[in-house]
């Protein structure tokens, strides 16, 4: 569970359940390959403004589940609005910058890409995606489906995290 702080910016009330540090594990499915497991750490932080700062780090793990080597990360900002819409601006070191838009429904957020910008050095022709974040019995669960120029929308990442 989480506590809704009295000094929290009112614009963040719908996103308040995300605030904090989360850790867990997930899988990534690249087209034509078997799913691979990874560890993940996610932070949603606020500083009094009307947005959350987001940082997700994905990594391989050793035999005991400890972080071993980085896979990727993404960072950005999330905002919620009175009509229960949500926007997220996310970027990654591979050369992707995504603007996501969607709906907040209690402990669930559904997002789709509004815009995907990729650098000329981006490793894959990623063109769009869908994300689902949910609070399921106090755990943060998320799924990211992705489309590329070569493959239609399909499972890409999914994970279950616990508040750390």
Features:
164 residues; mainly beta; 10 strands; 62% strand; globular
How would you summarize the topology of this molecule?
Layout: E1 20-28, E2 36-45, E3 52-61, E4 67-80, E5 85-92, E6 96-104, E7 108-118, E8 126-136, E9 139-148, E10 154-163
Antiparallel strand pairs: 1-2, 1-10, 2-3, 3-4, 4-5, 5-6, 6-7, 7-8, 8-9, 9-10
Q: Largest beta sheet: what is the strand line-up?
A: 1-2-3-4-5-6-7-8-9-10
Count of extended strands: 10
Tell me which CATH architecture applies here. Beta Barrel
Structural class: mainly beta
CATH C-level class is: Mainly Beta
Our measurement of the CA-to-CA distance between the termini, rounded to an integer number of angstroms, reads 12 Å
Q: With helices defined by DSSP (H or I, 4 residues minimum), what is the helix count? A: 0
What's the structural domain tally? 1
Most strands sheet: 10 strands, antiparallel, barrel
Gross geometry: globular
What is the compact description of this entry?
This protein is mainly β and about 160 residues long. It is built from no helices and ten strands. The chain has one domain: Lipocalin, CATH 2.40.128.20.
Can you walk through the features of this model?
With 164 residues, the chain is an all-beta fold. The chain has a single domain (10-29, 36-163), classed as Calycin beta-barrel core domain (Lipocalin). The protein is 0% helix and 62% strand. It has strands at residues 20-28, 36-45, 52-61, 67-80, 85-92, 96-104, 108-118, 126-136, 139-148, 154-163. The protein has a ten-stranded antiparallel barrel.
